Amino acid sequence: MRVKEKYINLFTDFGFKKLFGNEPNKDLLIDFLNELLKKETGQIIDLTYLPLEQLGQNINNRKAIFDIYCENEHGEKFIVELQKAKQNYFKDRSIYYSTFPIQQQAEKGEWSFKLKAIYTIGILDFIFDEDKQDEEVFHHEVQLFDKNTQKVFYDKLTYIYLEMPKFTKTEAELETHFDKWLYIIRNLEKLTNRPPKLQERIFSKLFEQAEIAGYTDQEYAEYEESLKVYRDLKNVIDTAFDEGKAEGKAEGLTEGIEKGKAEGKVEGLMEGIRLTARQLKQEGIPLEVIAKVTGLSLEELHQL
């Protein structure tokens, strides 16, 4: 029996990569990035998808697995990540991931160290704990900044985070093309028909590609499995962070880790993270997804 929704959930791995991560739909990603980055990059004409798995400089280094990794015609790199649930040290991970396209630009022999720009984009299905009180700002653009001059010190490394739960505009309130993109990302699964305000040609293609009824049986099975993973993951992780499953302590994991450091309870809190990881394994969540969310290594997960 097919799911009752008309359109796919963009926060599932299947939905995100179906609409943004494959060659036939590349124009959707180009249009979205142009709206997001046009003040920085000008118009993106074309994109080339790059391998999602990136290895370190040697076999002993950790690797990175991106959701989407691509390059425009000027050699600028774009990492586009979908984050479905809260994760310890998410900002740290996004900074670490950006080091891979930096290192890849190194040339053999004499080299001037001139780098192409790198953009790391996080589309978040959660709100940063430190930003919970600020309901207005959901679109964060971060660059290296000189505190003394109050100017950008280096503009070739940009981190953009979109806290999607904070985007609450209704269809009637949509003003810009970018507003419409955010509305789709936030609400696609809930829509029963294409909204009258979203009549641009690019959205015609998006709604066509997002309609579940047009999928083959195999595509539908892949989407249904991806949807189950998304819902299970959101339920387990969000509950763990919000209610604090650290051996029964009523402390959220993110806040609890910081408090635990001061109180000497780090190991107890880490045990809570491991407990959550074990629950995710029991739910059949892929180990790569659990590692991404909890910050634990695959080796640690195999031992649980």
In words, what does this structure look like?
- The structure is a single chain.
- Helix 7 (253-263) packs antiparallel against helix 8 (266-282).
- The chain is 42% helix and 17% strand.
- Mean pLDDT is 84; it is low at 245-253 and 259-265.
- The chain has 304 residues and is an alpha+beta fold.
- The two termini are 35 Å apart.
- It folds into two domains: 1-214; 215-304, no CATH class.
- It has ten helices and ten strands.
- It has a six-stranded mixed sheet with strand order 1-4-5-6-8-7, sandwiched between helices. A two-stranded antiparallel ribbon has the order 2-3.
- The chain has helices at 13-20, 26-41, 90-103, 177-187, 201-210, 217-244, 253-263, 266-282, 287-294, 298-303, and strands at 47-49, 53-54, 64-65, 68-72, 77-83, 118-124, 139-146, 151-163, 245-246, 249-250.
Keywords:
304 residues, alpha+beta, 2 domains, two-stranded antiparallel ribbon, 10 strands, Rpn family recombination-promoting nuclease/putative transposase, RpnA
